[in-house]
Every structure is written in structure tokens, then in C-alpha cells.
Hints:
By secondary structure, this protein is mostly beta strands. Helices cover 12% and strands 32% of the residues. It contains four helices and twelve strands. The chain has helices at 25-28, 30-33, 126-133, 203-218, and strands at 58-60, 67-74, 78-85, 99-101, 107-114, 147-155, 161-170, 176-186, 193-202, 221-227, 246-247, 253-254. Strands 4-5-9-8-7-6 form a six-stranded antiparallel beta sheet, with helices on both faces. It has a four-stranded antiparallel beta sheet with strand order 1-2-3-10, with helices on one face. A hairpin with a 5-residue loop joins strand 11 and strand 12 (253-254). The longest helix is centred in the last third of the chain and has 16 residues, at 203-218. It is globular.
Amino acid sequence: ALPAGRAAWAVPQQLMPTSADYNNLQQLSPETTGTLGAGTISSRSRPSTGVVLLDEVQESGDKNSPTVSAELVLDGGVAATVTWASEFPLSHGMFYDVETRAKTGEGAFLQVARLPDGKSMAEVSDSFFTKAVFATEGRFGAYGAPTDIRVLSSSREGAPRLLELSFAALSPGQTEVPRRALVAALQPEGASDVVMLVGGATTSQWKKAEPALRRMASSLRIARTRPTNIPRKKASDYRFEEQGGLKTKMGDVNEIF
């Protein structure tokens, strides 16, 4: 049994949890979520991944290692169905966009980033990806921008484009926790965005987690694309009103994010 006052989701103190270790908004920011209703969230707490979903994320096969499928709205007038063969269960709830996580903490999530005007994925440097993945509003930045970011390897040959990264994420007490990440990136046809699958683990868990993360990265696919007039903005996400956004009768949008 857990000691009184300690939540079942609590991370052992010696592990020095970072924002990547938590499984929901209440764990990450209880002082914020305690004052919010069930249908609202705080933009300062919920990670921003750039993902706009047209429909519910689908999973097939084994629940512990499902094939994940998500239809995303992308810049350039494109809707793309993104799939990968996960080796971790799909995470559910308002805290997530598209993410799978193991009980031991390693996981992977989708992220979307807009390319510079007139540039293709093949033309951008590695810094484009590190800037997107390690933004303070992103999955690793809830307690401050990650530090000591290094590109350990980068491959532009074939698809997807792969980058292996090391960095230090900040814990709530501002202690740096060494981590590793593997980024697989694709540019769907006609889109001016890059879709990334970002897999990560603590440095101490990396050797054990790396084979699964690499298999997942290599399975990333754009299953299909179609033209759309739907813009890539928060109000276009099918979950928008559930997450606290308000749509007026005239179609104007007030976003709380």
C-alpha cells in the first residue's frame, strides 16, 4: 500500500521526474487543474505538439503493442493519415494528442512542425528539428527549456529522416535529468509541415529502450493523404470544445489556450 497522502501515480523522488515522466495533467500541475472543470485545461500545462486531429486516434491489434493511426490536418491544404507500429500501449486523455507509453516511462508521441516558407524537409538543417522538439511549450519543456542538446547522429537517406539526440530535461526542482530521444520525420505529399514521431527515455533506460524505439521509428508511415479546406488550427481539432474552446454560432472562435 502507498503511504498516506501519496498518489498512486507518484514518481519515486530519486528518479527526479521531468514533464516527460507524467501521465496526465493532474500529475503535472495539480495546483492548476484543481481549479479547472472537467472540460477545461490550462495552456501553460498541456504540452503543445502542433497536432490537430480530425477524428479519434485509432488502434488495432494487441492493446499493449497496437498499430496506431491518426488523421491530422496539415498546412498546405492536406489531411494525412499517419500510422506506426507501437510497442507501447496508447495513452488516452486530454493530456495527450497521439502518444504511446510503457509502464517503465519510455514512450513516443507525434509532433507536427511547419517548415520555413519555400523549404522542403530535405533542405532544413538538424536545428529545425531540435528547435521544434525542445520548445518550452512542448512535451519536454514544462519546467523550462531542455539544455545540453546534442545531435548524436543524423540520417537523411531514405524515409523517414532520423535523428538521435541527447539532452537534459528539467525536473520540478530544476534538476537536470539526462535523456535520449530518437526523432523520425516525414513530409506528407503536398504538405508544408513535417510530421515527427519522437521516442524518448532517460539515459539510464536508453540501452534497454532503444531497440523498440528504433523499430517504431522505422515503421512510421503516411498511409494516405487527401485535400482539405480545413485549416491547421486548434479550433479545427475534433476535441476542441471538449478541451474548453468555444465556437460561436457565427463560426468565430474564442480559444482559451
